[in-house]
Amino acid sequence: MKNSVLSQKIYSFLLAAYRWYLLTPERSLEEAYQSALKIKEIEDKHFNGNKICPDSAMYSSSVMDYFQTELKKLLKNVRMRLTEFKASRWFSNESKQAAAAKTGIEYPNPASVLEKLEFIDQVIAKYINNDLETTPVNLVSPPKIVADNGAIAQPITAKSSLPNNGSKPKRKTDTTGVLPRSILSTITRLQVELDPNSEQDVVQNFRQTQKRTIISIRFLLLLIIVPLLTHQIAKAVVVGPVVERFRNGETVEIFINEEMEEEALVELQKFEERIRFENLISNAPPLSVEAIENQMKEKAQEVAEEFRRASANAIKNVFADIFSVVAFIWLLLISKSSISVLKDFFDHIVYGLSDSAKAFIIILFTDIFVGFHSPHGWEVILEGISKHWGLPANRDFIFLFIATFPVILDTIFKYWIFRYLNRISPSAVATYHNMNE
Predict the structure, then answer these.
(1) Do the beta carbons of residue 148 and residue 178 sit within 8 Å?
(2) Rounded to an integer, what distance in angstroms lies between the CA atom of residue 372 and that of residue 410?
(3) How far apart are CA 306 and CA 254, in angstroms?
(4) In this structure, are residues 385 and 321 in contact, taking their beta carbons and an 8 Å threshold?
(5) Among candidates 435, 415, 427, which has minimal Cα distance to 360?
(6) pTM
(7) 378, 428, 104: which is closest to 386 by C-alpha?
(8) How many CB atoms lie under 10 A from the CB of residue 59?
(9) How many angstroms separate the CA atoms of 118 and 123, rounded?
(10) CA-based, 20 to 30 A from 175: which of 75, 201, 282, 374?
(11) pLDDT band (50, 70, 90) for residue 203
(12) pLDDT band at 234, cuts 50/70/90?
C-alpha cells in the first residue's frame, strides 16, 4: 500500500516536470512578450511612443539612468526568453507533440504565436544596433575644464565628490602618466576630430543643450510669474472681497500700527504749515481760524481714507503672500525633473565661466550681501517687508538681524570657497584672493 502511494507521488511529480518541459516554448514566448509590453508601456507613457533615449523626451540624468537600466533589464530578458523559445522549439518534434496531447497540454494557435513574435520584433528592432551602450545618458555632457597644464578635466559633480565605499583614494603617482597631459589631450582631440561620427555627436549635444536651455528659462519664468499672478489674483478675487467685507464699517480702526498713525500726523502737520506759509507769502487776507479748521478737516478725511486703504492693503498682502508661497511650493513639487535640468543648466554656465569671471561674481555677491555697505541694504529690505505686511519696523530686531545674519552668510561663503571651490577650481580661488587684495 505504501509503495503504491509512493509510486503515485513519484509519477505525479514526473508528470508535472514533463508538462513543465513541454510548456517551455509557450512560457518563454509569453515572458518575452510581457517584457516587450513593458518596454512599449514605458515608450508610450514617458517618451510619447518613441524610442527610449534622451532625444525623445527631456529628463534629467538620474531619470534617464533609471529608464536605461530598466530597458537593459527588459531587453536582456527578451533576448534570453527568445533564445530559450527557439531552442525548445528546435528540440520539439511530432512525438513530443503527441505526448503533450496525451497529458492534456494544448499548444497555442500558430497565428497567436506569430502575432506575439511580430510585436516583439517591432519593439526590440529600435535597440538592435547596440544604441543602449552608445547613447549618452546625460542631457548634455558636462563642460570640460582646461587646466593650466593644458589637460582637459571633467568638472566634479555631486556624485563624484562623494567618497566611494571601499575605494582607495588616488595618489598623485597613480594619475601621473609617462607623457605630458597636454600631449595626451591633443591626441584625444585629434581622435575626436577624425571620428566620422563626431559631427553627429556635436549636433546631438547642441540639440540637447538647446532643449535644456529652453526648459531652464521657461521654468525660471514660471517660478517668477506663477507666484506673482497667484498673489494678484488671490488679492483681487479671494482675499480682497473678504477683507473689505470685514473692514467695511466706521468703527474699524484706521491704523494697524503706531508708525502709520505717526506718518498721518506728520502729513497733517505739514499740510497745516503749508497753508499758513502760502497765506503769509501771498497778498490774500489772513485766514480765519474756522477756514483753517475746515481745510484741516477735509485733509484729515483724505489722510484717514488713504491710511484705511493702506491698512486693508497690508492685511490683503499677508494672505495673498501665503497663497503665493503655496503656489511656489506646489510648482517645485510637481517640477522635480525641471529642477534637475535647471541645476545642470547652472552647472554648465558656472563651469563655462573663466576664473576671473567666477572671482568677479563671488566678490560682487559677497560685497552686496555681506560687505561693508550691506547693512544699509538689509535695513531697506527689512523695512520694506515690514511696510508690505503692515508691521511696525522694530529697530532692535533689524539691528540684531544685521549684526548676525550677514556674519553667518559670510561664514557660509568662506566655507563653500574653502571646501568646494578650492577643490573644483583652485585657479579661481587664487584669482579671487588676488582680486580681493
Answers:
(1) no
(2) 12
(3) 9
(4) no
(5) 435
(6) 0.54
(7) 378
(8) 19
(9) 9
(10) 201
(11) confident
(12) very high
Query: Helices marked H in 250-335 — which ranges?
Result: 258-281, 289-333
Please spell the DSSP secondary structure of 86-149, one letter per residue. Answer: HHHHHH--HHHHHHHHHTT--PPPHHHHHHHHHHHHHHHGGGTTSHHHHS--SSSPPPPEE-TT
Neighbours of 357 (CB within 10 A): 13
Say if residues 215 and 58 touch (Cβ distance below 8 Å): yes
The one-character DSSP state at 285 is: P
206: its cell numbers: 547642441
How far apart, in whole angstroms, are the C-alpha atoms of residue 347 and residue 145? 12
> Nearest Cα to 39, choosing from 28, 29, 52, 24?
52
pLDDT at 200: 76
Closest CA to 389 of 312, 315, 309, 310: 315
Task: Tell me the three cell numbers of residue 222.
Answer: 514660471
Place of cell 484706521: 254
C-alpha cell at 399: 539691528
CA Rg value for the chain: 37
Q: Show the cell assigned to 29.
A: 514566448
The one-letter amino acid code at 417 reads: I
Q: Which residue is listed with cell 509512493?
A: 6
Grid coordinates representing 278 are 502760502
Higher-confidence position of 436 and 374: 374
pLDDT tens digit sequence for 360-412: 888 888 888 887 778 888 888 998 898 888 888 888 888 899 889 888 988 99
Taking only the tens place, the pLDDT of each residue in 110-146 is: 788 888 888 888 888 888 754 443 343 344 344 444 4
Residue identified by cell 549636433 is 203
Q: How many CB atoms lie within 10 A of CB 107?
A: 15
